[in-house]
Amino acid sequence: MPKSSNYTASAAQPSTNISASQRIPVVQIATPSAKIHVREQKGIFQRLRQYSNTVLIAVFFLLPFINYQGRQAILFDVTEQQFFLFHITLWPQDFTVLAWFFMAAAFALFFVTVYWGRVWCGFLCPQTAWTFIYMWVEAKVEGNHHHRAALDRAPWSLSKLRKRVTKHVLWMVFALLTGCGFISYFMPARELYIDIFSASNGFWTGTWVYFFAICTYLNAGWMREMMCLHCCPYSRFQAVMFDANTKTVSYDAARGESRGPRKRSQETELGDCVDCNLCVDVCPTGIDIRNGLQYECINCGACVDACNQTMEKFGYAANLIRFTSENALKGQSQASVFSIKALGYASALLIMIGLIIIDLSQLSDIQLNVIRDRQSLYREVGIDTVENTYQLKIRNKTQQAAVYKIIVLSDKAPTFRIVTDTLVQIKPGEQLDYPVTVSARRSERVGDTSQQTLQFSVSQVYSAVNPIPVKPANQVAQQSRFFWP
């Protein structure tokens, strides 16, 4: 049988006895200068991958165009240091919520890995999605994998130049769209696309867009499987999460060996593997799954579809290569569904979700900072009145203008009064520096202390005409000191 253009030899031999601790370290020795021309494959897992990748890419590009209450629904405004997520506005001091979110996503990935291996890499990873898009463009312009390999070997001609230029131009256009798509989460999307494609963008806007466009072009167009083989950290430590019940793409060596070519109607004592090499031809990372599980495998299921196609032609049972576990290959019963690893990751995930809920429930729409006037501790007015001056920094953390009422409280006499206006209106996201003067009667002072604790409270109200609190959650308080003569 002729070898495929992406054939790689392995130093390991197929084995039916692969323990859980020995499943990953299979050494692949690939031809240094070989370029992988992936064969196009159809099947249930490829359709599932295409659907999931389509949804992923559509969500990536369309989310920034969703508006909410007159502004972009999802926007990380670096200039204003605000993160808008529909009705939620996160400020730098609220970014612990994002930290919990990313940690929850990591533990969710680990939890799925315990059961399904690197299924994330095969069906949802952006690197995989963009790589398959670039390979699809390449196939449409240059032809199937045989034609592409032949074009690589062919001398330069006008036809070859035309195909290569067309392919790279299309790659660059999609890379530029990707750069715009990413930066549109940090800048208003509608203005960004117009500015980039009309060449009227600012320097830094263009710099970041073209930086991510170049990264996309290099990663998906040139590096491709090298990102999975050498750059992706997940491929290096994901084996730690595997156990004997983890379902990964596996070759049933007991059924397939000894492999060898044969005619369709020929009776043979060989195993079911006909050594067609299709499982190698369709692999985006260029490995031979028959050599055992390897860290380079991204669990995309392409070899499963290719092998099932061959098994159907020869009249053999399907799933010689399939998603299965080590215990299932050995014919052993599966242990408890909830392993220690799975329970550990699930517990960590639930804790992270709980922290997200707690943080979100404690988010305040108001930020208050009270600063005393340190140049003058107090001011005597008349015979019986003492005044202290404060600077209130009040920030409206919502996306709408709001009216706030300022009050001052103390658990002891005297009665403190705010001399200045107690109602202020603040624009969305604005911080107001508001000077406040608090007065009290000397005759009402209790004891002989030189200072007393008081508390400033700021709450959102309906309007200046109707100063009723909107809801208890829209209130914040901070303590300070009142000094006496």
Describe the overall structure:
The chain has a domain at 366-483: Sandwich (Immunoglobulin-like), CATH 2.60.40. It is elongated. Helix 6 runs antiparallel to helix 7 (189-197). It contains 15 helices and 18 strands. The strands form 6 sheets. Strands 10, 11, 12, 14 and 16 form a 5-stranded antiparallel β-sheet that branches. It has a 4-stranded antiparallel β-sheet with strand order 15-13-17-18, with no helix packed on it. A 3-stranded antiparallel β-sheet has the order 5-6-7, with no helix packed on it. 30% of the residues are buried. It is of the alpha+beta class and 485 residues long. The N and C termini lie far apart (101 Å).
Main attributes?
Immunoglobulin-like, iron, 485 residues, Cytochrome c oxidase accessory protein CcoG, single chain, alpha+beta, electron transport
Give a concise summary.
The protein has 485 residues and is an alpha+beta fold. The chain contains 15 helices and 18 strands. Strands 10, 11, 12, 14 and 16 form a 5-stranded antiparallel sheet that branches.
SSE blueprint:
Layout (H helix, E strand, L loop, with lengths): L8 E2 L17 E2 L14 H19 L4 E2 L2 E2 L1 E4 L4 E4 L2 E3 L5 H21 L2 H5 L2 H17 L2 H9 L4 H26 L5 H9 L5 H21 L1 H7 L2 H4 L10 E4 L1 H4 L21 H4 L20 H13 L6 E4 L1 H4 L10 H22 L4 E7 L6 E3 L3 E12 L5 E8 L7 E2 L4 E4 L4 E11 L9 E11 L13 E9 L2
Antiparallel strand pairs: 1-2, 3-4, 5-6, 6-7, 8-9, 10-12, 11-12, 12-16, 13-15, 13-17, 14-16, 17-18
Protein name: Cytochrome c oxidase accessory protein CcoG
Keywords: 4Fe-4S, Electron transport, Iron, Iron-sulfur, Membrane, Metal-binding, Transmembrane, Transmembrane helix, Transport
